[in-house]
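seq/struct pair 1
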Amino acid sequence: MKIGYQGVPGSYSETALQEYFKDYKEEKIEAIGYSDFQEVIDDLENNELEVIVIPVENSTTGLIARTVDLLRYRPIIAIAENYQSIQHTLWGLPDSSIEDITEVYSHPEALSQCTTFFESHPAVTAKAYEDTAKAAEYISENGKINQAALASHRAGELYGLKALKKSVQTESLNTTRFYIMKHAETVQLEGDILSLYVETKHESGALAKFLQVFNLFDCNMESLNARPISGKPFKYGFFMEVDISQMTSPFELLWQTLEQVSEYVRLLGRFDSAIREK
């Protein structure tokens, strides 16, 4: 089974992949790292991959827009979720100290999860990099004593770096949520959580009418996030997650009703809650 993720060995996405598939024994797993999320999703859509693992939400910074925005119009779907505790370590060269550091490299999401550190170290500049583990690799190869990376414990060890400060993240319970996704044509969906994206009709009260459907079907709204629609300035689409565990009507009837009261709606996933399972 070919499974894609964004990053290199030691990235948090790779860790989520390993955690979710640790007991999988049906066939050999081949984990394939990509430089960006667009390529990962493209290869799943084109059936070059069977599964992908991508981050969609963080407990500190919220929705990860750079990934979920890519899902709006794609024939791929989430079949499960996975939660990973994200503990960022500041990694430098073996002979460096935290006093030497003036530049810290990491993925933009990781940098935004460590704002308190940068506020308390005003002389240190945050440098956006394509991936947390890739940033650790860069520090190792570049060999500059004033540079460091924010990355996982595994990434720092993989690239022979020295831990200058552990748990740099602002929130101690910093957690990232990942979707496990497949091509929509290859799965039979089940589960109590629906993930969907909707663009409402251009009429008064359109969003309220759409949300009222969930009340009528005894569904509970778990989250709602607005995102700009590309090519339509100041028009917004909405990412939603809904708990349908108390619904007694057929799912098909719910979906038909949602289609009737929206301009566009796509099912992004249906799965059981990983938190509830625990």
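seq/struct pair 2
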Amino acid sequence: MDLQQSPFIRELASSERKTRDKAVESLTAFLRSKRDLKLFDLLKIWKGLFYCFYHSDKPLVQQALARSLSYTLVPSLPEQMVLPFLRAFWITMSRDFHSLDRLRLDKYLFLIRCYVGVSFEYYLKRGGKSKRQSGNNSTESQKAKNKRKRERGEADSEVNGGSTSRRKTSSTSAVPVREGDEWAELEAYLDMLEDGPLSPLIFDPNPSKQLSNQEDENGALIKVPKGPDGIRYHLMDIWLDELEKCATEPDESSAGDDEESPATKLKEGVPMELLLRPIERLQSESPNKTVRTRAKETLADERLISWGVREPEKVEEGSDEEDEWGGIED
């Protein structure tokens, strides 16, 4: 079966909503039934999706299709398929971005925005759920441990005539979950971005040898292209916008200050240090001055200050006077 020419791939570009929805359902069912798909197969699917999206017309159709391919499709994938599917997306976007003309560029930028948003939403939700479960498990484990201690104490009291003997804690007690493990999936996703579109480098200084057909089909050695800069700039522009949608909540303590843009605060436990790491690497390691400047502007966003992630920069006294224009000298 040629995945790129399959009917549901072509029908995704239909102007009829019912046809598109049916095509998304067919694609989801196909991906759910093929849990052993390799990256090479997913790249074939994304090549078909890329050109299907290329030929979609009318802004409303394009936006609806972009949301269907992201917010509808990604959360419904099997867990083990999500990261490979996202990797195939970023490989395809990075590889074919230069082929886009000016008229079609905006809709692909919107598709990229949707994928940044759904990725944040998916991994933050999973990490938060994992953190809550580990917390509950730790509490339950501690309660069970205390109960066993009490039972052992009562038994010792009966045997020793009321005197309790001290015993070492059982070596079979639950191993504590290391702090940060709940965000392992998010970190793996960010690692992939840092090795690809958000890499500080614009090329691989140690390129691997050309892959054989067998290695291509295996998919293990296929890397995400580094860049291009157009995607880097776009990601930095939308990074905090998409984070704000899923990582913040209304700040009731500041409600009413500004009705047009109500204050928000970070949800508890959001790993902002991890989420900002790719941008910080661009600022400190990119050889491109423009990239470093754009990264610095992103990290200086006022929202990071209002969320308590960063402190406002202190302006040195007299700096304003030095920057003032003194007119044209004679």
